[in-house]
Amino acid sequence: MGYSPETSIILVAIAPFLAAILAPATARFTGAHAGWVLAIVPAAIFVFLLRFLEPVAGGEIVTASLEWAPAYGIALSFLIDGLSLTFALTISGIGALIIIYSGSYLAGHPHQGRFLGFMLAFMGAMLGLVLSDSMVALFTFWELTSVTSFLLIGFDHARQAARRAAIQALVVTNLGGLALLLGALVVQQITGRWELSGVRETGDLLRESPFYGLALVLFLLAAFTKSAQFPLHFWLPNAMEAPTPVSAFLHSATMVQAGVYLLARMTPVLGDTPAWMTILTLFGGVTLLWGAVAAIKQIDLKQMLAQTTIASLGLLVLLIGLGSEAAIAAMIVYFVAHAFYKAGLFLTVGVIDHETGTRDITALGGLMRKMPASFIAAALAAVSMIGLPLTVGYLAKEEMYLALAEADAASLLVLAVLIAGNALLAGVGIAVAARPFTGPTVETPKPAHEGPLALVAGPLVLAVLGIAAALAVGWFGHAILEPAGTAILGLPVESHLTLALNPASVLFWLSVLTWALGVLVFYQLDALRAFLRRLETGFGWTFDKGFDAAMFGLIRLSGAATRFLHHGRLELYLVVFFALFAIALIVPLVSLGGLETLAPAVSLGQWAATGWSWSDLAIYEWAVVALAIIGLVVLVAAQNRLVAIVSLGVQGIAVALLFLLFGAPDLAFTQFMVEILSVVILTLVMTRLKLDERDRRPFEDAMRDGTVAVLCGAGVTLLLSTILTGTLDTRLSDFFLATSVPIAHGHNIVNVILVDYRGFDTLGEISVVMAAGIAILALIRGQRGGRAARQVEPKPAGEEAR
User: Fold this and answer.
1) Less Cβ crowding at N or C end of the chain, within 10 Å?
2) Per the record's keyword annotation, is Membrane included, yes or no (predicted)?
3) Peptide bond connecting 231 to the previous residue in cis, omega within 30 degrees of 0
């Protein structure tokens, strides 16, 4: 084929990010044509991915891998099979049309380039997600979709509603991201594999593990938050605060489809269990009906479509839960159909809003004569949404009904849910396509007219594709359905898609029933909307309000915890810290038997057994000990602050001398510097107070502090004595000696330890020093600024005369 998988697949994942970096400059130079220019990147990705259709349909799986963290067995690995290719083609193809649309939709906007950059990064995150084979890479791109969607939903950051919607989406989906990370760790611990393809090779190992339930819950939580499953669905309608191109992309091929992709990808290792089937079928069915009913009560066209997206996501999850070959086939076909018609309808609604100034379905009518291209796009997309023949939506509906052809009670119940949900979606689809364009002409805030080519091209192309793919049913089944179904089930899947109508089949009459109920819903739409709104008003509580209450409670709890833990009293901070330090020293010694090993060595008759005695001290060593004792006595008995500060410095000097005498000159000089600076700085600070005063404290405070100090000193002494009486473990020092030159290329082992082996520790110390320096500089400048302000402050009236 003439390509390098390692280079090409990785380039597909990173190319949109590179384009995102260049987007602001491109928009600055090309203006209104920026969308056409930047769309070259996703269009090129789409064309490139088309090359894989035949090889993948023939059973080939293309992989690429780069070493990432080889010490932990983690690689940046990618995989193209039927499932990832279907999603990647949808993302890049629809993405190219939406980038073109976005360039025109935001033409003249001061932040057009930034918006296009966010959109391209959003696309790149989703492409990386569906192409990732490594669970670590999958998690990384998963979180990138949350971050980029946050930027897009809150793009109009001047509006509070946009900021709230962005934060809500980020909070909910990040909870799922944490669940995905934990789930990946659990799966890796069970299977020993980081790659999804490797996990799949382990067969039933994951299902037979005692931790299967934990892994299942974590992956379902991740998928449910991302794909807005009940009761975690409430963030998705609020995301409509984003500009229309974002809504079209997010609802059709990105973000919300990530959870569906994750469930499909994990089906071979987590699926086919009673828990999997029950949970997905139950929550998917509830989400389908909930979203479909919620769409009925909306009057904002974008909100109507957003609620139907929730319903469609529930339908996809339900089909994955059923897990049969027909159900998985229906899921794949419905994913493609939904991507086509939902992106087309959202883009059409954007044109209506852009050219009329309103999205209120009750304030629109008669636009067909003024916006004929938009009407054609909306009508064709709605035909696929309704599931009429000659559309991909029809093929999907037939497959999902076929999956429930069994006559048992459970299948009939799920079938009833599907018929009801599809009928409600059909009614909304008819309303979105018919109400704004038919009937008498209604005056709109802006004079209605057709949008430019960049706005109407995308909806028209998507609407036509929804029909063209169905007309090429044989190719569609061979190139899309079969490889994707095989990737999900791990078994060969054969397509039996057909456009033929068979009045003798039960499936035909189930479709007729769905269409009839959809027409009924459309004609009763206003009455149903009024009833549902009265019901909602009477109920009062919503999941959205529940989220606000939870966030408010979290903020209140955080505030209370902060006030309790960070009360601002330095004295109590120090008492708590050193008390915990004493506990950390003494409790392990007592509980782990450290004192038992120490007792024989320190008994009065066995000091010599330690190899050390007080008589071994030289005269200058006794002098250092005496200096430390004198400093301690003077410090405790100090009558004023200046004497206490100097005595504290004497203690530090004694410690530095001990370091010097026992072979650590670098540490000794560091200690000297610290002590000198400490005494100088404390003295300078205290000059603002009174150095000749003594800090008098209550007796109980002195006893408390003294007890804590004695316990800390005793703990350190006992710990060091225990270490010295034991056998010295030289493994770490031997490692430093053996590797400092060949690995770190340094002969000074101390420097190598600080810079290489403890590099992050040293970096942290440097960061602390830098932060302290910045704080001191800010204080000095603030003091100078205050002094200057006082100098130029005008005198009160009459001051000069006095």
Assistant:
1) C
2) yes
3) yes
Q: What angle do CA 258, 263, 268 make, to 5 degrees?
A: 140
**Distance between CA atoms of residues 706 and 382, nearest Å:** 80
Contacts of 535 (CB under 8 A, 6+ apart): none
CA distances in angstroms from 204 to 75, 185, 323, 797, listed in the order given? 24, 18, 16, 90
- Please spell the DSSP secondary structure of 540-601, one letter per residue: ---HHHHHHHHHHHHHHHHHHHHHHH--S-HHHHHHHHHHHHHHHHHHHHHHTTHHHHHHHH
Residue 71, pLDDT score? 74
Measured over all CA atoms, what is the biggest interatomic distance in the chain, rounded to whole angstroms?
112
CA distance readout (Å), 722 to 596, 600, 605, 710, 717? 9, 11, 17, 18, 9
Closest among 510, 491, 484, 466 to 329, alpha carbons compared: 484
Task: Tell me the sheet residues that pair with 134.
Answer: 195
Residue 453 near residue 378, CB atoms below 8 Å = no
Nearest to 749, CA basis, from 762, 734, 761: 734
Which residues are CB-contacts of 451 (< 8 A; sequence separation ≥ 6)? Answer: 104, 351, 354, 355, 371, 373, 374
Q: In angstroms, rounded to a whole number, what is the distance separating the alpha carbons of residues 650 and 642?
A: 13
Q: State the Cα–Cα distance between residues 45 and 691, nearest whole angstrom.
A: 74
What tokens appear for 298 in the block? 């909306």
Token pair in block for residue 717 = 């002494």
CB 479 within 8 A of CB 53: yes
Predicted model pTM: 0.80
Q: Do 314 and 285 form a contact (C-beta atoms < 8 A)?
A: yes
Using CA atoms, how far apart are residues 382 and 262, in angstroms rounded to an integer? 28
- What is the model's pLDDT at position 802? 39
CB atoms within 10 A of CB 175: 16
Centroid of chain to Cα 125: 11
Specify the pLDDT at position 94: 94
Residue 62 belongs to what H/E stretch? strand 62-69
Contact 384, 392 (CB under 8 A): yes
Provide block-wise average pLDDT over 10 residues at a time, the chain (802 residues): 62 90 91 89 94 90 83 84 94 94 88 93 94 93 94 90 91 93 94 90 88 94 93 89 90 88 93 92 95 93 93 95 91 94 93 90 90 93 93 92 82 92 94 91 87 90 93 92 91 85 86 94 92 82 84 90 83 89 88 66 45 68 85 79 80 84 79 80 68 70 87 87 77 86 82 81 80 76 60 50 40
The answer to whether 123 touches 15, Cβ cutoff 8 Å, is no
The Cβ-side half-sphere exposure at 604, using a 13 Å CA radius, reads 0
Q: For residue 121, what pLDDT is reported?
A: 95
**Residue 584 CA from chain centroid, whole number:** 36
Tokens in use for 160? Answer: 């509070």
d(C-alpha 303, C-alpha 42), whole Å: 28
- For 60-85, b where at least 16 C-beta lie within 10 A, e where not — what string? ebbebbeeeeeeeebbbbbbbbbbbb
Task: Round to whole Å and give the CA distance between 155 and 588.
Answer: 54
Q: Is 40 helix (H, G, I), strand (E, B) or coil?
A: helix
Q: How far apart are the first and last CA of the chain?
A: 97
Burial class (CB in 10 A: 0-12, 13-18, 19+), 340: buried
Sign of CA dihedral 364, 366, 369, 372: positive
Q: Distance of alpha carbon 532 from its chain centroid, rounded? A: 34
